[in-house]
Write a structure and sequence with these properties.
Elements lengths: L3 E10 L2 E11 L4 E5 L6 H9 L6 E6 L2 E5 L2 E2 L7 E4 L11 H11 L4 H14 L15 H14 L4 E5 L7 H18 L2 E6 L2 H7 L2 E6 L2 E6 L1 H6 L4 H6 L4 E8 L2 E4 L4 E4 L7 E7 L4 E4 L5 E10 L3 E8 L2 E8 L11 E6 L3 E4 L3 H5 L4
């Protein structure tokens, strides 16, 4: 397969710089996700890997070979890359076999080679029983797998996926996340996946690169980025979180809106801080020790129940298991325990939610 190396990579359109210096290596066989809001630069990186865009400065090397940089621009068809877009891009007049076989037919491959390779790829994406069907006879997820099979047929070094699941319904997206991850694992191919959906990124990636306005805010495994975000923007983009102003002095964390004090940790900075708390990291009970509060709202969602609890001047969000609904009612007095929290230096949250530039 292939590794990808980026050296001082930038991209500008006129005076607008959409990607600032990007220095990283994607390892051979790694599943990397470029995650971020619209306009953050993730698709620009993908298009430069593919050769559709030329960097303003810097280099891209695939397996050590310079493919973009300076006066060098290796065309897309010479890069041994497979690409799957948001649209399925399958031909409606061709059946599944013919759609997948098309790249080999263009190269005038032998019929026996076409047959054996297409059958193998269709088996890999679990479509071998649908070989004779037209796209109109397939579900959206099956059509996306046809596009994926066609991209894998040429045995590319890299597979680039640009928002491939955004046109699917929620349940199908969930199924396809795991199918694509499993296909990537079985084929051993290096994958670069672009999405704005943090759940997709968390479920599929070996590493996530979270970008905004052309700057990588944080890179790491899903666990690293979710549990140890480097700033409030990262914490807010990945998962649910509420922020509160706090003050740490002499080993004590004071939360003014809560009118509560908690022991600070040795690693926590002194002075004004922003405290991030995820709703699943608060335990709620009827009795025992804890911060007193009152349930003001509750929403049953099946597998979870989403609560709002009034604590002094703050309304706290808590997500508990669905069965907890039978134990609590509106107006109940409860006790809260914070199981985990994130501490960021400084008190101006709006400035902190702006990205590093």
């Amino acid at each position: 397969m292939a590794s990808i190396q980026f050296i001082n990579l930038t991209k500008s359109y006129g005076k607008v710089q959409v990607l600032k210096e990007f220095n990283e290596t994607f390892a051979d066989g790694e599943f990397v996700t470029l995650l971020g809001p619209s306009g953050c630069g993730k698709t620009t990186i993908l298009r430069m890997i593919a050769g559709f865009e030329h960097p303003t400065s810097g280099e891209i090397r695939i397996d050590g070979q310079l493919v973009s940089g300076g006066k060098t621009l290796v065309p897309p068809e010479k890069r041994e890359i497979g690409m799957v877009f948001q649209s399925y891009a399958v031909w409606p007049h061709m059946n599944v076999f013919e759609n997948v076989a098309y790249p080999l037919r263009v190269k005038h491959a032998a019929k026996t080679e076409i047959s054996s390779r297409v059958e193998r790829i269709l088996s890999l994406v679990h479509l071998d029983q649908y070989a004779e069907r037209l796209p109109s006879q397939l579900s959206g997820g099956q059509q996306q797998r046809v596009a994926l099979a066609r991209a894998l047929l040429a045995e590319p070094k890299l597979l680039l996926l640009d928002e491939p699941l955004s046109n699917l319904d929620a349940k199908l997206r969930e199924t396809m996340r795991f199918e694509i991850k499993e296909i990537a694992r079985e084929s051993g191919i290096t994958v670069v996946y672009v999405t704005h959906d943090q759940t997709e990124a968390m479920a599929m990636s070996d590493r996530i690169f979270l970008l905004n306005r052309g700057v990588v805010q944080q890179a790491g495994t899903p666990e690293e980025i979710y549990n140890h975000p480097v700033n409030p923007f990262v914490a807010d983009f990945l998962g649910k979180v509420a922020f509160y102003q706090g003050m740490i002095r002499d080993g004590i964390l004071f939360l003014p809106d809560w009118q509560e004090s908690l022991p600070a940790r040795p690693c926590d900075p002194e002075g004004a801080v922003t405290v991030g708390i995820r709703p699943e990291n608060i335990h709620m009970s009827r009795e025992g020790e804890g911060i007193p509060g009152t349930i003001t709202r509750m929403y049953y969602l099946g597998d979870t129940t989403d609560y709002r609890v009034r604590v002094s001047q703050a309304e706290i969000r808590i997500i508990a298991d669905g069965a907890s609904r039978s134990r609590f009612q509106l107006g109940d007095a409860v006790k809260l325990k914070i199981l985990d929290r994130m501490i960021f230096p400084g008190e101006n949250l709006q400035d902190q939610l702006k990205i590093r530039t």
